[in-house]
Amino acid sequence: MKVQAILEFDLEDWDGSPVDDRELFDLAVQDTELAIRSRLMGEGFLEGDALLGTWTPRVSVLDEAGGDPAPP
Fold this sequence. Notes:
By secondary structure, the chain is mainly α. The protein has one domain (2-64). It is 29% helix and 0% strand. It has 1 helix and no strands. The longest helix is centred in the middle third of the chain and has 21 residues, at 22-42. The radius of gyration is 15 Å and the shape is elongated.
């Protein structure tokens, strides 16, 4: 069995306006993957009797509007 977690978010500037800059989306992808690798998996978040085996973060930019996507 596996656990699957999907995180989907839009980007907004400090005024709450939607961001439409592909470069910022690409940076958000990199930062999100780094956060998952270093904080969530590196520091650990499960009890001592549960360890993660193989895991792969899948982080990308969607060109279409979000919603309720089917898992990859």
